[in-house]
Amino acid sequence: MLKRHFTGKNLPQVRAQVEDAAAAAGLGGVRLGEFTLAVSEIAANAVEHAGGRGRLELRRLPDELECRITDDGPGFVPAIPELLPGLTEGCRGRGLWLAHLVTDRLTVTPDTTGTGAEVTLALRLT
User: Staple 34 to which of 21, 50, 69, 102, CB 3.0 to 4.6 Å?
Assistant: First the structure.
């Protein structure tokens, strides 16, 4: 449905394209907003923590809309807190927490060798 490289500079356009493609795939209302927000958070994490760029692939599966975001950053060990992380500047992890909260499926495949990470998130279409 959509394959894009992104940077901080074109992230707003990529968000709009994700929203348009998700709407065309059948998402609407609150679910459309939640999916767009989740994708935006994960893409922004790639820009902030993985060298300023990443790759996004949005595809429709039989019962889900799935987005895979990959980067070439230093890799990380995912820790998705159960509760909202603190709101202090030193406390991180709210983007992953939020994306996990509003999606039906979120997986993180870290690469601890320093060659990137992959985050896949999805919403059911049925």
Answer: 102
